[in-house]
Amino acid sequence: SSQFYRMNGGQESSAESHGVWLNLSSESGKFSQMYAGYIDGATNGIDSDLDSEYINDAPTVLASVIESKEFVIQGRTLPFSSSDVVRLLFKTDVAGDYKITIDHVNGLFSGSQDVFLKDNLMGITHNLKESAYSFSTETGSFDSRFEIVYNTTALSTENPAITSDKVIVYQNDNSISIASATATIKAITVFDMQGRKIYSKEDVNASDAVITGLTAKNQPLIITIQTVNGTVSKKIIF
């Protein structure tokens, strides 16, 4: 396929390319777009005439990672291999719900080749050619949560011990949302910094939960989440 695309220096060029344009968006209006494609003359390293580096011009971004640097346009080497993996970076200053969608594709991706988004936090591999992927997040920078892959492998059936990086806690308007990536939540307890219990809920029996009824006072709270695989505590300002 021959496709015009804008290069790093701003000029347009025509070359063989097989690529995917991804959009990141939220209901609050956050938006970012990135491109990863297999282009004649590209390498899997940094190509100054093809790749376009993220210049930190927006606090919310979806980008790819090359040699620990962040790129909103990445050219990769031909020929395409379905075993290739494109590492992504996601960062935001606003916690909440987001979605990643395919804006458009070209080349072989216009055919039967699938494009999967792998969420390493939640243990989900989702086919973006079938539908958008929705997820929840805390604020921060995450360079190991998401990857683009082109085929799927068998999912693990193990139940590892729960760790704090497998549980997301964030404020959503006047409530607190909790999502556990790998284990069912059994119970939730909230303490203030004086150690006083101000909220508790038993028999949650779900992978996510919402805490309501607390009065936001811009104070630190400790949220203890008991799952079937163990207990973790998270700190949040609410």
Task: State the distance separating the first and last CA atoms.
Answer: 52 Å
- DSSP strand tally: 20
Helical residue percent? Answer: under 10%
Write the element-wise H/E pattern from the N-terminal end onward. Answer: EEEEEEEEEEEEEEEEEEEE
- Mean pLDDT across residues: 85
Number of domains: 2
What oligomeric state best describes the polypeptide chains here?
A: single chain
Strand content: over 45%
Gyration radius, to the nearest Å? 20 Å
Main beta sheet strand tally, sense and closure: 13 strands, mixed
Number of helices: 0
Structural class: mainly beta
Uncertain stretches of 5 or more adjacent residues? 1-12, 154-160
Shape label: elongated
Lay out the secondary structure.
Layout lengths: L1 E5 L5 E15 L4 E9 L12 E2 L7 E6 L2 E8 L8 E8 L3 E10 L10 E4 L4 E4 L5 E5 L2 E3 L3 E4 L17 E6 L2 E6 L4 E8 L4 E5 L6 E4 L8 E8 L2 E8 L1
Parallel strand pairs: 3-6
Antiparallel strand pairs: 1-2, 2-3, 2-8, 4-6, 5-6, 5-7, 7-12, 7-13, 8-11, 9-10, 9-13, 14-15, 15-18, 16-17, 16-19, 19-20
Question: What this model shows, in words?
Answer:
Helix content is 0%, strand content 54%. Residues 1-12 and 154-160 have low confidence and may be disordered. It folds into 2 domains: 2-149, no CATH class; 164-237, Immunoglobulin-like, CATH 2.60.40. Strands 1, 2, 3, 4, 5, 6, 7, 8, 9, 10, 11, 12 and 13 form a 13-stranded mixed β-sheet that branches. It has a 4-stranded antiparallel β-sheet with strand order 17-16-19-20, with no helix packed on it. The chain has a 3-stranded antiparallel β-sheet with strand order 14-15-18, with no helix packed on it. The chain has strands spanning 2-6, 12-26, 31-39, 52-53, 61-66, 69-76, 85-92, 96-105, 116-119, 124-127, 133-137, 140-142, 146-149, 167-172, 175-180, 185-192, 197-201, 208-211, 220-227, 230-237. The chain is mainly beta and 238 residues long.
